[in-house]
Design a protein that fits this description.
GO terms for molecular function: mRNA binding; structural constituent of ribosome. By secondary structure, the chain is of the alpha+beta class. It has helices spanning 73-76, 94-103, 106-131, 136-141, and strands at 8-16, 20-24, 30-34, 55-63, 69-72. It has a five-stranded mixed beta barrel with strand order 1-2-3-5-4.
């Protein structure tokens, strides 16, 4: 079977260099896996990922006019898009809150807003006073 771009084949690591690994392919041809194509993560030391005579699956990335074969282990191991789980979009009833809010009158909503606002303002003042030392300023101001 002739080598074709895009196919995944098994090969044997025949040599390791600082910039990549040479892989012996079927039919006696040799290809290069660049260090950037060895794994999904950053590879600082290729010896941590590959050993000589190791059997690896590689994807043929390109074959140039001189017959040089570029390979990728990273692309051979990519998960298939169809196999990935896809969550369906969440359904939201946009009108449910609007209907609940529209049942109350404007005055009721305004009263609720003012009440919530007063409570938040009271809590904020309480927090600020406690950070100042529990009202020490007021005691000194009474002299």
């Amino acid at each position: 079977m002739p080598l074709e771009v895009g196919t995944i084949v098994e090969g044997k690591v025949s040599g390791i260099t600082a910039f990549g690994a040479f892989v012996q392919l079927p039919e006696g041809r040799t290809g290069l896996v660049h260090i950037s194509e060895v794994a999904q993560e950053y590879v600082k030391d290729i010896n941590a990922h590959l050993k000589e005579n190791q059997i690896v699956k590689v994807k043929i990335v390109s074959i140039d006019s001189n017959g040089k074969v570029s390979l990728s282990i990273k692309k051979a191991c990519e998960p298939k898009q169809a196999a990935m789980s896809v969550k369906p979009p969440m359904e939201i009833e946009w009108n449910s809150n609007k209907n609940a809010a529209s049942n109350t009158s404007f005055e009721d909503r305004l009263a609720k807003f003012l009440k919530d606002s007063d409570e938040r303002l009271h809590d904020l003042k309480k927090n600020v006073d406690s950070k100042r030392g529990g009202g020490g300023y007021r005691k000194s101001a009474q002299y």
